Amino acid sequence: MTDKQLANGVNINFSMPDVSSIHLHSNDTRNLLDVVDNLRSQGINRYIDLPQIIVCGEQSSGKSSVLEAISGLMFPSKDNLCTRFATELILRRGPPAPIKIRIMPGSEQRSESELQRLADFGVSVSHQDLRLGEVIESAKEAMGINDADKVFSSDILRLEVSGPEQPHLTLVDLPGLFEAGSSSQSDADIDTVKSLVLSYMERPRSIILAVVSAKSEFNNQSITRYARKIDTQGLRTLGLITKPDTLDEGSDSEAFYIRLAQNKDVKFRLGWHVLRNRDYASRNSSLQERHRAEEQFFSTGAWKSLSPTSVGVHSLKPRLGKILKDQITAQLPAVLNQIQDGIQESKNILNLLGPSRATFSEQQRYLLQISQSFSSLVKAAVDGSYYDPYFGSAATAEGYQKRLRAVLQNTLSEFAEAMRRRGYTFQIVDETIEESAEEDPWENIRSRPKRITRRNYLSKVKTLLKRSRGRELPGTFDPLIIGDLFHEQRKPWAALVDEYMEKIISAIYTAIHATLSHITTSSTKEELLRRFIHPGLERLTSDLRIKVQDILRPHETGHPITYNHYLTETVQNAQDQRFRGEVRKSLSEFFGYGQGASSHKLIEYPFELNSLIDTLVGKHKADMDEYACSTATDFMEAYYKVALKKVIDDISVLAVEACLMIPLPTLFAPEMVLDIGEEEVAAIAAEEEHSAEERARSTEKLRVLENGLRELKTMQEYSSALTDQPSAIPYPASDIGESSHEDVLEEEEPVPPESLELELASPVIEAPEELPPDPPTAFAIVAHPTVQPFESPESPPTSYYRKKKKSKKGVTSDF
């Protein structure tokens, strides 16, 4: 049957099956909900946000009547404040059993006596003996609620109800919102209730059942405004309209609420539902009488245009059950991940706190564990073995700071580059290089070398040479002049070495502090730093500075010494390069070519051979002092390169590595613990009161989360089975639009009204060539073209729609 046939009003005979009995009473569904409720009873909701349906609305919106219709329990109903805490209603289909009632402690800090009072509240009563009003009053007293100091509580009253007519469903009823105070509730209580309700609504895994009374102006009811503000896309809100019988037949208000129920005004993905509850006159009628009156109301008047799946408690219970089941199965992976993160966090805290340590032996054992962990992690950081989870991700600044070897390697590489780029006083350049030929990346460094041409530098050397004459022959020079030139050229070394040693020391302090923070508490860390780590680091730093001075001292005083053949090779290479340039210049001048030409066309050119030879070899320096200055400068530059490489390596190996890195793991070695006196051990490792409390909290949290993880692992089997079951509830249409998911898009397909007859057939898929992943099985609708058309042939009611899913390529399949 096509959409077009439905739209044209084809006569079709249907009879609606009892959707309340399809699948939602299965053992798998019960097991699924039982696991979640058991987790909540163990207190896991203090740490993990669990999927739940929260019932919220204005005071006197009919929330109590909704819960009464669903559960069959008589909830107290009056115009003033009814509940001052959340009430959790757990419904299970099964044999009749006593109702279990207890209080689950909330997030408030409680004394032992208060917790014991809540634990002693637990009772079991039969359905006949249940006086819920009295239970609520007793619960208020147990929670410490009174009209003077405490009006509301974060504790939860929990009712577990089992019966053959009950659905598998769990609901959380919240106090009603109100906008004005009264004799029984102050203006301050307005914000208190609002804060409690909004805290539940803001939990991203909660399904919001927003109860709206048709007796009141819709715009004056704040619950849907809050729902739309918190659930901005309307993905987890189901609207529920109560008291539709209070509307005048044919009025604009009735038309508005019918449009609202059809999801045509305020639109939610889960749509809307309508209940007709008992009024004051029929408050003492039985539940069966209530159901008959509701069925009669929705079968007459304008309300009969609504889909039977969106009216009445008979369809509300399975609808809520499926919504809750779907929410649990959808959120299960995220809940598991959050639990696993919480378990790891608790373990980290417990590892940090260590075992209880009240005696000297326990404290000494704790310090031994710390020293072993410290030495192991610091050695791993020094060795560059970052396999321990402590090191985290290198992509983060925190993880990089812990990788001490990586920090050291990068810092020493920067040091070597800084020494090569900024380690000399003068940058001697040829006359052909312009001052601004190339942008220097060290341009803005204050200690940037001063650029000087070789000709000008030789003039400085010539002056120094004349002032240092001894008994050397013309054209030669006193060897000590090389030392004078070198000492002036290497002046920036000491400042650069100090700059980068400070960076390395700072990196070591950062890494050591991070290691201690990881393995012990803040109080023990501070004591260890003060008594052992900082004094040890100061000794290592002192050794480092002494070694640095030892390395630099030979280059700061005395004459140059080296037996490295690289010295003479460098001098010869420099002189060869200059001679090569002079020959090139002479040939260019001899043949009349420009000096900048690099290649020339082969031509015949007559020349005098002796003239050419004279040109090539006749460039002797007549000024013997100039020759001596040039040679001295060549030797200085060559020796500078040799000394620079040695200093960089010696600083890295003999100073940083030998004096700092190698001794680091021994700053707090295990053998040091054995030499610490009893009083000092107590001062370092004695446990503070808040640490014992933190250990108890983390131990309890770890126990609850690990139990929850085991149960949820089991629940995965049920959820995987449930996702393969057919959907039992045709949902009313939602005009929200297409889903934001790219792989599965939702569109609407009309489903016939209640008077049509259904036949259950094998699953039908229109496009077998491509399906959405793991589609649920569907019941095919087989139409018999006989009797009733729709009310409006031109446009079938949108509330008779059910979902279709479309793949990326537009292929459609029915569910």
TrEMBL record:
InterPro entries cross-referenced by the UniProt entry: Dynamin, Dynamin_GTPase, Dynamin_N, Dynamin_stalk, G_DYNAMIN_dom, GED_dom, P-loop_NTPase
Listed GO MF terms: GTP binding; GTPase activity; microtubule binding
Boundaries of every Dynamin-type G domain copy: 47-333
Start and end residues of each stretch annotated as Disordered: 725-815
Record-level GO cellular component terms: membrane; microtubule; mitochondrion
PROSITE patterns xrefs: G_DYNAMIN_2, GED
Superkingdom of the source species: Eukaryota
SMART domains: DYNc
GO term, biological process aspect, one: mitochondrial fission
Keywords: GTP-binding, Nucleotide-binding
UniProt feature, compositional bias: Low complexity: 754-764
Residue ranges of domain GED in the record: 629-720
Record-given protein name: Dynamin family protein
Source organism (scientific name): Periconia macrospinosa
Lineage, broadest ranks: Eukaryota, Fungi, Dikarya, Ascomycota, Pezizomycotina
